[in-house]
Amino acid sequence: MAKLTIDDLKKIKEKQKATFTLREGGSRAKITVHMGTCGIAAGARTIMTALIDEITKAGVEDVITTTSGCAGLCAREPMITVELLNKAPVKYGDLTEEKIREIFSEHVLKGNPVEKYALVVGSETTY
Q1: 29-34 and 63-68 beta bridge pairing
Q2: pLDDT averaged over the chain?
Q3: Which residue blocks in 4-60 are alpha helix, DSSP H?
Q4: Which of 49, 123, 55 is nearest to 91 (CA)?
Q5: Total-model pTM
Q6: What is the mean pLDDT of the segment spanning 59-85?
Q7: Please, what are the domains in the chain?
Q8: Fewest beta carbons less than 10 Å away: which of 32, 61, 94, 99?
Q9: What is the dihedral of CA 25, 26, 29, 33, to 10 degrees?
């Protein structure tokens, strides 16, 4: 099996990024609820339910919700990652239903990240 080069990794990254990136004319926001075993045990299902309730109440149709496994910060679960079009992703932790409502209202609807709940802004580079 041939070894991957840095250029190969960059090409893979760009292809994946194009697949998962929010595009003009599509959804303007993507919210990922981290639902690994640790997230579920910490209450991620309650967070997902509260999030869906907020989306329904707001009547927005341009927000994607998705799930993922563990983000590697088990002690900070339940967690979400909010991605807005053309903005750096923001990962939030130690969430409650009240916090998710505030994050949805301020960050998702108004575009203002809620710094007091944010763990990190941006994402890692995979090469």
Answers
A1: parallel
A2: 85
A3: 6-20, 37-42, 44-58
A4: 123
A5: 0.77
A6: 91
A7: 27-121 (3.40.30.10)
A8: 61
A9: -170
Buried b (16+ CB within 10 A) or exposed e, 83-95: bbeeeeebbbbeb
Give the pLDDT score at 122: 85
The whole-angstrom separation of Cα 125 and Cα 102 is 29
For the chain, give percent helix, strand, coil, nearest 5.
Answer: 45, 20, 40
Q: How far apart are CA 55 and CA 24, in angstroms?
A: 20
Cα 23 to chain centroid distance, Å, stands at 16
Beta-carbon contacts of 52 under 8 Å, excluding residues fewer than 6 positions away, are: 65
CA distance 107 to 96: 16
The DSSP output letter for 116 is G
36 contact partners, CB below 8 Å, separation of at least 6: 68, 69, 70, 71, 74, 77
